[in-house]
Design a protein that fits this description.
By secondary structure, this protein is α/β, with parallel strands linked by helices. It has a single domain (2-159), classed as Pyruvate-ferredoxin Oxidoreductase, domain 3 (3-Layer(aba) Sandwich), CATH 3.40.920.10. Helices cover 39% and strands 19% of the residues. The protein has 5 helices and 5 strands, in the order E-H-E-E-E-E-H-H-H-H. It has helices at residues 14-32, 102-110, 117-127, 132-142, 148-159, and strands spanning 2-9, 44-51, 59-67, 82-85, 98-99. A hairpin with a 7-residue loop joins strand 2 (44-51) and strand 3. The two termini are 26 Å apart.
């Protein structure tokens, strides 16, 4: 099982990124294995948030679990395979973490995105060898239609 912890602040889209990754993983499994009939997917994902005070700007975490077998453990992740920080002020020195930086904000500005969640998702996707098309499938499933194109372009840019 691959486990990812997302750190962000309320309103930065950490939970959305966690959901997008889970959807991309599960949909990719269905596509790769020819399962377009709505049957049981060959890959499973679980994404959930953990909030402190539920207000914009408050620190929060989101979790994504990806597995080839049904996921029964619904607890928070204690030892993540990857840790992603959407807000660099929350970074406390974890090794091998993906931390938002100036290049990520430049991509957001280029595509006129208010947050960098899909950009960080693209960086993570590259690191775990998830194809951009799988992320695009997740975006089409989870996000409103008006947001598809610019978020998919930002993901592809971040994966370069």
């Amino acid at each position: 099982m691959l486990q990812i912890v997302w750190h962000g602040r309320g309103g930065q889209g950490a939970f959305t990124a966690a959901r997008l990754l889970g959807a991309a993983y599960a949909l990719g499994g269905m596509k790769e294995n020819g399962r377009t009939d709505g049957g049981e997917p060959e890959k499973y994902a679980l994404a959930f948030p953990s909030f402190g005070p539920e207000r914009r700007g408050a620190p929060m975490r989101a979790f994504t679990k990806l597995s080839d077998v049904l996921i029964h453990d619904r607890s928070e992740i204690a030892r993540a395979d990857f840790v992603v920080f959407l807000d660099e002020t929350l970074y406390a020195g974890e090794r091998d973490a993906l931390v938002a930086g100036p290049d990520d904000y430049a991509i957001a500005e280029k595509f006129r995105l208010p947050v960098i969640n899909t950009i960080m998702l693209g960086r993570l996707a590259k690191k775990i060898d998830m194809p951009a098309e799988h992320i695009a499938q997740g975006i089409r499933l989870v996000m409103p239609g008006r947001m598809h194109e610019k978020n998919m372009l930002a993901v592809r840019e971040a994966m370069k």
